[in-house]
Design goal:
With about 900 residues, this protein is mostly beta strands. The chain contains ten helices and 59 strands. α9 crosses α10. It is globular.
């Protein structure tokens, strides 16, 4: 009777679980195989209700649980025993060759013993719970997944690759230029940023004194790592593009070839780490994703920033590297200066449908660069929060602020291309200053309500909640562990749910609903009514004691306008070269504006454009000509003028190095008509310092340092031009070119072009005959960079010359040897007349015209006949025997020249 009841209970469990489980039947053991098991199949609801340990989420309804204390299956409710196939990765396939696998375990000691017992000896221990082996698929299925010490198996790429080409900067796109005006004390001082990459060039003039030495830094120095460090905290010594977001921050470097998370103790107090690299497109939650989520959950103040990848042309789900499938990190795509996604920027969704990338930032060169921009902004946010509150800004709060302050792009609400939008650094910092942030914690079944008051005439209320979630188990089909729900209750008791997306239809716009997969939820209300709003955060399921969360919120007031670029101290173009759109914030709707510019402090205005929609928040303008001037912008909406700060219009002066010779460097630059003078700056220590002012367009120095120049006009200073490069000594020594050539049939002209006239006393022409040098010409009055001499008495045959420049200190700079042939009365110059077998015979004609070359042996036998169709010809003597030969050249007009050559 007891057996019958047990069987009946088992059948009821089987029937109840069989509904909607067809796709997981391959994991269930056949009835005859069932016995005392470690792992079971059950519903998520049942696992939550009975607090079973979930080791793999299969979908939103079912999971695999572990029989932790090896209880009798009779005490486990509504479960079915499973085979070991669930341990395999989703990308597993049959293969005979050995491939790399990563095995997770709860006991590394037991796993090593088990692997050695089945003759696997090539084992690499990755950490206390992970090992790497190589195996074919048959051994994986037959011998490895059956081991109790094996918790899961994954196939992951561990070879990182950089994800940008060169440094590019445009701080206007992410409102970093406004940060430098509104928050001048936020420079990254006393902040340390970790960059996981190769080592950057510590001698780069934008990164002097930046490195905090580390035991985990790479031995390889790369331009990519240097570019990332420059974007994060460059000093700006090289140019506007060398200026970083957090200029005074220091940098800790770690080797990205060690792709798993660095130990916290090795980060040397850095709380933000940049990861501008990827592997291959990986749509699963592997050991790397698990490891990074675990580190972030255990270290609430730490933030990891990942580039989404440059594989966007492959479409959706193109994120490069499973470590970017984490829940607690931030993944960045990239946009151009018009806030349009770059086609190569990798897209989401994450493997389980979550929103990826979370955000975008500027770069036209790669998501590496946009990620470094975000890392720099986060560094300033953490500095600002610590200054105000004397404690650390958590990762969850960092994400909530960034996401809530971002400008929505693409479809309304989040999407899988732009995520939650474009980072706005200025708004993020204002959120911290104005304390529009809320923290709390919640348990399963609990709801917390937070009240905010919305004033009259408010628009675009936005509320975002973020939490650092527990890591999911490796290979989980759904990564969410703790599920919180957000809803907003308006003053008139209307309920607003967060935006959600359908990953099966990634192009579709977001709709409102309950979110069951993301650790970020956002509610927006376009026209909120005035009064109290309730922000309700509920713990639908929380596996641990309580789940911490962070909320950020903002709203606009209607009919507001604020300039973003250019603002005070900005230059247009932003880097002195590349025109970037004018930008502003606006909450106007239904009204158009007129854009004007003034070059005389608002006394007169020139209309640029009319009928501008303020809601576009940018306007592309290319000036008809280059100006060097102070200027203001004006947007007129209705009867109100919104006038910008005074800003500078100036351009890069295109510095060139004309001389690097004899210990002296000379630089030259453009002379715009409106510029009165030029300020010279010299690199002193790790910064550029004013040296002197000049009205010249050239400057010489002998100290070998780095220099730059700025234009001075209207009692103000323009943008610094790109600084001088360091050249090897004597690499640019006066002579741009030098040559000797026949002139008027019986003369030779020797000409030269010079880079510089600096410090030249005189110039001499030297003729060389039988290795004896004789000065045959002198120029004392030197006022041109081009010069020439005429030799009126050249010798028949080869004539050799050189040009000597005598400097004021009597040092002599010589040109290369110049050699030309003078034919005198000969029709042709034939050389060499003594040559080796297979060497070519060179024939130079005195004038244009065709001729025929004949070569005869001393016995009169014709060995070669060849046409001469140009002034210079080469005759191959291949296979010609040694001996004396007679040549004859007959022109088309019947003229003849003969001679002898010897072949040996």
């Amino acid at each position: 009777m007891k057996k019958q009841i047990t069987f009946l209970l088992f059948m009821i469990t089987t029937i109840s679980l069989s509904q909607s489980t067809e796709k997981w039947k391959q994991y269930l053991k056949k009835e005859g195989e069932r016995k005392f098991e470690k792992y079971y199949f059950t519903s998520l609801e049942n696992a939550h209700e009975n607090k079973y340990k979930i080791v793999k989420k299969l979908d939103s309804a079912f999971c695999i649980v572990e029989n932790e204390n090896l209880k009798s299956p009779k005490t486990l409710k509504k479960v079915l025993p499973v085979n070991n196939l669930w341990k395999l990765p989703s990308n597993f396939s049959n293969h005979k060759e050995e491939k790399q696998y990563i095995i997770a375990t709860d006991s590394i000691k037991a796993l090593l013993t088990d692997l050695q017992s089945i003759n696997i000896s090539d084992i690499k221990i990755l950490d206390s719970q992970l090992v790497m082996i190589k195996s074919d698929s048959k051994k994986i299925i037959d011998a490895i997944i059956v081991l109790n010490s094996v918790a899961s198996i994954s196939q992951e790429s561990l070879q990182p690759q950089a994800e940008s080409k060169i440094t590019d900067q445009n701080f206007t796109v992410n409102s970093i230029n406004k940060v430098h005006i509104n928050f001048p004390l936020l420079t990254g001082e006393n902040q340390t940023v970790a960059i996981k990459d190769d080592l950057f060039d510590v001698n780069d003039i934008d990164l002097l004194n930046k490195l905090i030495p580390s035991t985990i830094q790479s031995d390889v120095v790369s331009t990519h790592a240097t570019a990332m460090a420059t974007i994060v905290s460059g000093l700006g010594n090289s140019s506007a593009l060398g200026k970083g977001v957090a200029q005074k921050a220091k940098i800790q470097s770690s080797d990205f070839l060690k792709i798993y998370p660095d130990e916290m103790s090795t980060l040397q107090d850095a709380v933000t780490q940049n990861h501008s690299y990827g592997t291959v497109i990986e749509n699963f939650y592997g050991s790397l994703a698990n490891a990074y989520d675990a580190q972030l959950f255990s270290n609430a103040a730490l933030t990891h920033c990942f580039s989404s990848g440059n594989s966007g042309l492959q479409g959706y789900k193109s994120i490069t590297g499973n470590f970017k499938q984490t829940k607690n990190s931030i993944v960045l795509g990239c946009i151009d200066q018009n806030e349009v996604i770059m086609p190569f920027s990798s897209k989401g969704p994450a493997y389980d449908g979550r929103i990826k990338p979370e955000l975008v930032a500027f770069s036209t060169q790669g998501t590496s660069n946009s990620t470094a921009v975000a890392t720099g902004i986060i560094t300033l946010m953490k500095q600002h929060y610590k200054t105000i509150n004397n404690n650390a800004l958590t990762n969850a709060m960092t994400k909530a602020i960034l996401i809530n302050s971002a400008k929505d792009l693409g479809n309304t609400g989040p999407d899988f291309t732009y995520g939650y939008g474009n980072i706005n650094a200025d708004k993020s910092l204002k959120t911290i200053s104005e304390n529009r942030i809320i923290s709390g914690n919640v348990t399963s079944g609990q709801t917390n309500s937070h009240i905010i008051v919305i004033p009259a005439k408010a628009k675009n209320l936005k509320i975002t909640v973020v939490w650092n979630d527990l890591p999911a188990e490796i290979n989980s089909n759904i990564s969410l562990v703790n599920d919180l729900d957000l809803e907003v209750i308006s003053a008139d008791n209307t309920t607003f749910l967060p935006w959600i997306l359908n990953p099966e239809m990634p192009d579709q716009p977001a709709v409102r609903g309950k979110d069951k997969i993301n650790t970020i939820e956002q509610v927006t209300v376009e026209t909120p009514s005035a009064g109290s709003y309730g922000i309700n955060v509920s713990g639908f399921y929380v596996s641990n004691t309580a789940q911490e969360y962070s909320i950020a919120y903002e709203y606009e007031l209607e009919n507001q306008f604020e300039w973003n670029y250019p603002v005070a101290n900005d230059n247009f173009p932003y880097d002195g070269k590349t025109v970037s759109p004018f930008k502003w914030n606006s909450s106007f709707s239904g009204s158009n504006g007129q854009l004007s510019i003034s070059y005389n402090d608002g006394q007169t205005w020139e209309i640029i454009a009319t009928g501008i929609n303020p809601g576009l928040e940018q306007f592309s303008y290319t000036p008809p000509e280059q100006k060097f001037s102070k200027a203001k912008l004006k947007m007129t909406i209705g009867n109100t003028d919104y006038i910008s700060d005074s800003f500078t219009i100036s351009y890069d002066l295109n510095i060139t190095t004309s001389l690097v010779c004899d210990g002296t460097t000379e630089i030259n630059w453009d002379k715009p008509a409106a510029v009165d003078a030029f300020n010279i700056y010299q690199l002193q220590g790790d910064h550029l310092a004013f040296k002197e002012q000049t009205t010249n367009t050239n400057y010489t120095y002998t100290d070998g340092k780095t220099y730059t120049v700025t234009p001075v006009f209207e009692n103000s200073e323009g943008i610094k031009s790109e600084s001088t490069l360091q050249y090897a000594q004597n690499s640019n020594c006066y002579f741009e070119l030098a040559l000797a050539e026949l002139y008027e049939e019986n003369k030779i002209k020797i000409s030269a072009g010079l880079f510089s006239l600096y410090n030249i006393k005189r110039i001499e022409l030297v003729k060389i005959i039988n290795n004896i040098e004789t000065v045959v010409g002198t120029i004392d009055d030197i006022n041109s960079k081009t010069l020439s001499f005429i030799d009126t008495a050249p010798l028949k045959g080869s004539n050799k010359y050189k040009i000597n420049i005598i400097l004021d200190n009597n040092n002599v700079i010589s040109s290369l040897l110049l050699d030309t042939n003078y034919l005198d009365n000969d029709l042709f110059f034939v050389h060499p007349t003594l040559l080796r077998k297979n060497e070519e015979l060179n024939i130079e004609a005195k004038k244009e015209g065709s001729a025929t070359f004949y070569l005869y042996s001393v016995s009169g036998q014709n060995t070669i006949t060849s046409p001469l169709l140009s002034k210079t010809s080469n005759i191959s003597l291949k296979n010609t025997a040694s001996g004396i030969y007679i040549y004859k050249i007959i022109t088309s007009s019947g003229e003849v020249q003969t001679g002898k050559i010897a072949v040996f």
